[in-house]
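Archive transcription. Copying these from loose printouts into the bound notebook so they stop getting lost. Printout 1 of 2:
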Amino acid sequence: MSNDPSPDPAEQAWIRIYHETLHPLYAYVSRRAGGDRDLAEDVTHEAWLRALEAWRGARFPAEPLAWLRATARNLLVNHFRRQEPEAVDERALDLEQAVLPESPDAAALLCWGLAKLRKGQARLLEAYHLEGKGVAALASELRLSERAVEGRLRRSRSALREHLTPYFIRSEQ
């Protein structure tokens, strides 16, 4: 007979959820951290610390990853709202392309600008630029026509551009 106590089911659940969510959470955060690896690690860590506090007694949310992502998103928004972004060459940030900028400063500026937008606008642009979702996928998710999504993207980009324009360095062509 073994002296090892039987594994605690709550502890096993914590470990399972941690293993299932850590990599997707870090991927989510790192795309939104503007190329700052330390920030991505800190936010991922802080989101998990908050989960430990909020989920005491193994009271897990129905969707742990969704809870962690929402917490991480709020932490990032708060972080970027407090930051004064660096100015970047206007060519480093193409708001028409559905890609995260290669330059860490441009990525940080994009994330800072997203934090300044209304939540719906920011989420739409995040899905498009940071998650790489196309117009058709967004239209399906939002139950809108592609044309309506394109209009929302256009208005959201315009609002974002208003926040970012003072931080663009005009390049000599």
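Printout 2 of 2:
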Amino acid sequence: MNEDESAIRDVVERWMDASRRGDIDTVLDLMTDDVLFMTPGREPFGKAEFKVNSEALRDAKMDGRAEVREVEVLGDRAWIRNHIRVTMTPSGRTEPMTRSGYTLTILKRCADGQWRLFRDAIW
């Protein structure tokens, strides 16, 4: 595994760890300011909407795993294919919600040399 692939896998691990801890600021720092998330049945959304949605779930209990299946680095861009499984119990609910599926993510090496999420297509 080369240095870029290792750094990209570290981004995924830091994202999942921060998500489990409810550390929204760390998650936001792992994405570019012009990030776009694409999910079925809705228009793409960016960092501001991601933050609002995350803050609404701040008190939820979350556990999740991401298994990186492929990484391809092409200069200052890279793509990864993940399989993600997330279990979340929103505040005030007793039954957890579980979602799992594949994501295709494009990352960008930023001016500071760090890899950050740039585009994300979620199940």
